[in-house]
Amino acid sequence: MLAVGLVALGLVCCGPFTGIPAAIVGWLEMNAIKEGRAPSEGMWMAQVGLWGGIAVSIIGTIAWFFMMLLSMASSGPAYY
What we know:
Elements lengths: L1 H13 L1 H20 L7 H32 L6
Helix pairs in contact: 1-2, 1-3, 2-3
């Protein structure tokens, strides 16, 4: 559940800062389910956390580079 919450937060504002922890928490939860330490009903949410965290991190990083590129292009020439 925590991983899905981090993915949702990453979509809204934080990008890789919550996407990477979401992927880690999802991975740890999937390992716990495979070892029998957690109920198997949480597998879907763990997978959403893992893959959603990876996707949010990649999309957030691409968006950040795109915003930096646009801000450099709109600043005009560096000389006066």
